[in-house]
Amino acid sequence: MELTSAPAKKVVVLDYGFGNVRSAERALARAGAEVEITRDYDRAMNADGLLVPGVGAFAACMEGLKSVRGDWIVGRRLAGGRPVMGICVGMQILFARGIEHGVEAEGLDEWPGTVGPLKADVVPHMGWNTVEAPPGSQLFAGLDADARYYFVHSYAVHDWSLETGNPAMRAPMVTWATHGERFVAAVENGALWATQFHPEKSGDAGSQLLTNWIETL
To answer: Domain Glutamine amidotransferase: where (predicted)?
Structure first.
């Protein structure tokens, strides 16, 4: 009897003008996904997984996202329990608000919290750093505690306040990192996962992390 392998999971990289979409596409393909870069509403809605990249300023990213109905896409997918992953500013805009240069902008408000300036001797935080992943993390499964990931950012979330309030539901899993001060480096919360660092630029560790996400789709 001939065995057939399962079809590759289909992942859309949302193209809204504010992300390294080609790097993300290559990294996801290496991790075993069938990848498409698009801003098409229906294709983004129907993919097994949606990746939301992000570089630049919080407010500009939000404007770009709304211009392609990305806010609707993310909200509708999550309402149906369909996986979404944010990267870098693509993670930051999932929070309630961002403050850059004294200007406050509204985020997607999937999580409470404010993205604010990172207080450290050297900013931006640019380069390799370790993280503190919680026990039982699916995102960091199979990765050593001393694995390093590539960060490029000047802003971060410094507090986490969301709890499920329901003992039957799995509590969000929050991973932390430190650069001058402690900040949120990754979140696993039901169908919504995100990283402050760039897994697509994080070598073998980043590839394993993306494989872990794809395997949950």
So the answer is: 12-212
DSSP string, the chain: ----PPPPPEEEEE-SSSS-HHHHHHHHHHTT-EEEEE--HHHHHHSSEEEE---S-HHHHHHHHHHTTHHHHHHHHHHTT--EEEETHHHHTTEEEEEETTEEEE---SEEEEEEE--SSSSSEEEEE--BPPTT-STTTT--TT--EEEEESEEE-------S-TTSPPPEEEEEEESEEEEEEEEETTEEEESSBGGGSHHHHHHHHHHHHTT-
Q: Is 200 annotated as catalytic?
A: yes
pLDDT digits (tens, 9 = 90+) for 116-134: 999 999 999 999 999 999 9
Instruction: Please pick, among 25, 88, 125, 153, the residue that the annotation labels catalytic.
Output: 88
Domains in the chain: boundaries: 10-214
153 is catalytic: no
For 142-183, what is each residue's pLDDT tens digit? 999 999 999 999 999 999 987 655 555 678 999 999 999 999
CATH of the domain spanning 10-214 = 3.40.50.880
